[in-house]
């Protein structure tokens, strides 16, 4: 399978370092506030990547972290710790904030049918590993101390910033031009970053630990390196995150990990494009901060969001509009209804023997689907193959099985559709719908129209869309 590797800027053939198992790390959320539909997009992408690897027969060992300390309001080293800020805002302890928003994140995963990675690591539970890694960097001479922390000297590396595709000089000037990095007193280079921050004088922090350099807390970047290496080893196959992680967080993960081990840290870096809402960056102050649970409370299907994200490349920026979301929901509900009808018809028809021609056809659909998802997760194409399968003349039972197997990747929970088969539609009508579809597939349009009239006379409406056919009570 091919994956677009941010490190090389190319689609590359993916093969794990150890053929027996793919090691895969995903940067997790900072749990200081509710998860929103932007997070949903990034974690659906990360989930689908794991599903595609498994679909292609790989075993996967995956870690996702929960950032519950150390992520400052600026991605670099200035500003307040987001967790402490959340605790002040809600007059709760930092630990309560972490627990509450971690659960909120898990709830979102459940609503979107995102599987939880087998290893979930909380940063606060890996402080000793972070300290050991920093000690290693200190021993190798990569660190220096300032008034507020222990820093990594990026000028000691010749390839610092390689993930950005920019030279060190260009990276420095783009950081200087940007507002995201404020200069911290005592830092030698604008690109240097904190490995360990001291608890500031006269400040009471709820989360702090003793270390060889003084009481304080780890920098956000060292957290991910330490947790990834603790479970997956010094060189891992795949690492994911959002595009915003490229210039600072992931760049610094690479710098410190490779400085400590002398080995490549990650072989494939994959990044999800951001989601905007009605053309704007999501933020509470703009009032366009949308949570998945809110959509569900308004009666929308959360999995329609998953469907919507499948329609575009994971790498591109995507703009969420209510109209596009409702369109995705209509298509998704249509697909569920088709699944329900297929299940029902196949149950009634019993097991048919697959003719050679149809077996070849089913095999071709499966191959086309596999090729699409293996082409850097071309999910829009995979969805198109799904609909072609729906419209084909395969038997209901074969279609159903094939679509369920596609759903191992798509994650649209199509299996449960059999439960929401509209009770209001009687068996004989459903049979007529299937009969008409078959006739249409065989291009017997006059006969198909007769069947349609019969259905309509019985008080039901047949709706044909590009995506397939459904039936409703008039
Ligand atoms: P955070 O909780 O801010 O650390 O973000 C967790 C993950 O969600 C990161 O990989 C971010 O890149 C990603 N993320 C945050 N906001 C968005 C957004 N609007 N669209 C897509 N991904 C996002
Ligand atoms: Zn991370």
Automatic annotation (TrEMBL):
Zn(2+) binds at residues 27, 224, 249, 253. The keyword Metal-binding applies. A motif ('HIGH' region) lies at residues 29-39. One of its GO terms (cellular component) is cytosol. A motif ('KMSKS' region) lies at residues 281-285. Binds 1 zinc ion per subunit. It is an enzyme of class 6 (ligase). Its EC number is 6.1.1.16. Gene3D superfamilies: Cysteine-tRNA ligase, C-terminal anti-codon recognition domain, HUPs. GO terms for molecular function: ATP binding; cysteine-tRNA ligase activity; zinc ion binding. ATP binds at residue 284. SUPFAM superfamilies: Anticodon-binding domain of a subclass of class I aminoacyl-tRNA synthetases, Nucleotidylyl transferase. It comes from the Bacteria. It is found in: Cytoplasm. Belongs to the class-I aminoacyl-tRNA synthetase family. PANTHER family: CYSTEINE--TRNA LIGASE, CYTOPLASMIC, CYSTEINYL-TRNA SYNTHETASE. Monomer. This is Cysteine--tRNA ligase. The lineage of its organism: Bacteria, Candidatus Gottesmaniibacteriota.
